[in-house]
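Retro notes, structure queue

What went well: the backlog is down to a handful. What didn't: a couple of records were mislabeled last round, so from now on we paste the full input next to the output in the thread. Example, using Gfo/Idh/MocA-like oxidoreductase N-terminal domain-containing protein from marine sediment metagenome:
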Amino acid sequence: MTTVSQYAKNIAVIGAGYWGKNLVRNFHELGSLHTICDSETRTLLDFSNKYPGLNTA
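Corresponding output:
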């Protein structure tokens, strides 16, 4: 059986707005989140502070 840990750090969320913030939270809790992309600089800064060590673009 394949587990999430075998695919850890492989997901990028593009668009971290209304639904994206929920995806970011859930993928981060699973240990699968690698990068967050958003057109709003403020949104990226907020996520960088909340989830240190994640890539933002």
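Agreed that this is the format going forward. Reviewer comment attached to the example: The chain is about 35% helix and 20% strand.
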